[in-house]
Amino acid sequence: MESPSLLEVLQVQEIDELILPSIKYIFAYFTHRYPRHLLRVYNSLDDFYNVLKVVIEYRSLKKWNCTSVERRFQLKRVKYVKNAESLASLFPEEVNSAVKLSQMGILTKIFLSYCAPYLISKFNTLSDSTRFLELNINYNTEHNSTESEGHGRPSVFRTFCSKILSKLKRLSTILKFTFQLASKFYKNLRWIYYLLFALGIIPFSNPVDHLLKQRLVYDTRISNITSEKAPNLYALPSLLDNSMNIFLSLVQVLDWWQTNDYATQIKKGRVAFTELEPPELSVKNTSLTKNICRICGHTIKNPAVLTTGFVFCYPCIQSWLKDNPFICPVTKLNLIRKENSFWRIMV
């Protein structure tokens, strides 16, 4: 069981953390245009997303032993068993059964990774709203106290509210300080785990995985998403299983389109592929050779796509662009996005 590199683990975490901001950015754009219909949805977006995220990740962990983002990188979660690699050749069935995630492990993973951060963020929001409530009640108590002083009797409401608010404020301050201290400690501890994981000292990339005795490994048995049989996307289970992959692909396409500013360039006629006709494909370009790299002539491994739309081996296109900067090997056209002219395909 080969473990992924630290960069791949960080990339998985980064993509997972960017999903909610991306959704909120898209909703903010449409909410600005249609505030009457979408404002309530936008204000409750965190709640809807967390519920949907828990459902999707539970199905993914139950079915594939990995989260939806980890599945995209062909990774899976297994329980840590000492000397599992050496025992797998002797007792394959027993080892596979031992490393498989249990129901309790899946539920604990979901709670610590998704429910706990959500509850902490809700507590921070509640503490901020408590300050506003304190200001509002202070104003009301001052107003009531002036009326009570005019009538010559003490304000019972003011005394009761001041006691409740003082206790809530003290409890909120203690909890908030505890959460801040724990958050700083966890961030520093996570960097220590990153260092130990990169050096190969421990098989766990973060404290949560260490607590659950779960580790990430490559899973070549996860079929390529592009080569799977097309499921019925209108069925709810299939829609939930593939929703995260569809959304991530959509975000990548939108980022590519927005970064290159193709909408403006097409209007001005500055896009290279609008100036020339598509290249004529030879007779050899049949369905039998579509997986062949145009540079090395072998089956594409570790694919990377160029801005012109052709797919090559990642090492091949990297070395080609060093010798032939910003030129497509097939079309011989100059590449527009010279800084990032190709991307590695993670499937």
UniProtKB/TrEMBL annotation:
GO cellular component, one term: peroxisomal membrane
Protein's cellular compartments: Peroxisome membrane
Keywords on record: Ligase, Membrane, Metal-binding, Peroxisome, Protein transport, Transmembrane, Transmembrane helix, Transport, Zinc, Zinc-finger
Membrane topology term: Multi-pass membrane protein
Domain Zinc finger C3HC4 RING-type: 293-330
Domain of life: Eukaryota
Domain Pex N-terminal: from-to ranges: 13-259
This protein's record includes keyword rRNA-binding: no
Record Pfam families: Pex2_Pex12, zf-C3HC4
InterPro entries assigned: PEX12, Pex_N, Znf_C3HC4_RING-type, Znf_RING/FYVE/PHD
Alphabetized GO MF terms: ligase activity; ubiquitin-protein transferase activity; zinc ion binding
GO biological-process terms attached to the record: protein import into peroxisome matrix, receptor recycling; protein monoubiquitination
Keyword Transmembrane helix found: yes
Pathway: Protein modification; protein ubiquitination
Family (UniProt): Belongs to the pex2/pex10/pex12 family.
Self-association state and partner proteins as the record states: Component of the PEX2-PEX10-PEX12 retrotranslocation channel, composed of PEX2, PEX10 and PEX12.
Protein name per Swiss-Prot or TrEMBL: Peroxisome assembly protein 12
Organism taxonomic ancestry: Eukaryota, Fungi, Dikarya, Ascomycota, Taphrinomycotina
Gene giving rise to this polypeptide: pex12
